Amino acid sequence: MSLDRPQAPDPYSLLPQVDAFTLTSPSFDDGSDLPATHAVSGDNLSPALSWSGQPEGTASFLVTCYDPDAPTPSGFWHWCVVGVPADVTELTEGAGSADGGALPEGALTLANDFGTEDFGGAAPPPGDRPHRYVFAVTALDTADPGVEPGTSPAKAHFLTLEHVIGRATLTGTFAEPA
């Protein structure tokens, strides 16, 4: 059931450009396949993420995972965590679990497009082309960007836009066989 449609643009290329820094994962390299452990059909675990080189003045981070290739007009948010303290530079595998126990104090997980407040793994339609899963760590110049529980990931990005001073992205791909 390959859906015949053009590939969506890189969502971050449409935003104002800011300083870039480095985001890595021991699970996958930028542009490579996500292991099944990070898919809904697998273990549904968020990957370990580590970042460095964030800009001076960083007061907190916004951590997200977004699928621009979902067959919707708005893509699909798989994960959104706001309020990660500036002294945190990594999240362990599974940090996106529903209990939030592996997230740093003060971090707030917003509901993803599955409707749950956790990491929702890769879940492209079976047989569709590989989808891109863009993990982003966004450096903010404030520890309190005004994002409250119940805020959608899209609104969180809108509320934080004037506070963004840097961003690091890491993209993995995943496809489910037909």
Question: What does this protein look like?
Answer:
- The chain starts with 18 loop residues before the first strand and ends with a strand.
- The protein is built from one helix and nine strands.
- It is globular, with a radius of gyration of 15 Å.
- The protein has one helix spanning 153-160; strands at 19-20, 22-24, 49-52, 60-67, 76-85, 90-91, 108-109, 131-140, 164-174.
- The chain has one domain: PEBP-like (Phosphatidylethanolamine-binding Protein), CATH 3.90.280.
- It is mostly beta strands.
- The chain has a six-stranded mixed beta sheet, covered by helices on one side. A three-stranded antiparallel beta sheet has the order 2-3-6, with no helix packed on it.
- The mean pLDDT is 95.
- 4% of the residues lie in helices and 29% in strands.
- 38% of the residues are buried.
Number of domains: 1
CATH fold name: Phosphatidylethanolamine-binding Protein
Q: Helical amount among residues, as a percent range?
A: under 10%
CATH homologous superfamily heading: PEBP-like
Number of contiguous helices: 1
Which consecutive residue ranges, at least 5 long each, have pLDDT under 50?
none
Strand order within the widest beta sheet: 1-9-8-4-5-7
Distance between the termini: 7 Å
Oligomeric form: single chain
Shape: globular
| Total strand segments | 9
Determine the strand fraction and express it as a percent band: 25-35%
User: What is the level-2 CATH architecture name?
Assistant: Alpha-Beta Complex
Rounded to the nearest angstrom, the radius of gyration is 15 Å
> Could you report the average pLDDT, rounded to the nearest whole number?
95
Secondary-structure-derived class: mainly beta
- Biggest sheet statistics: 6 strands, mixed
Order of helices and strands: EEEEEEEEHE
CATH class: Alpha Beta
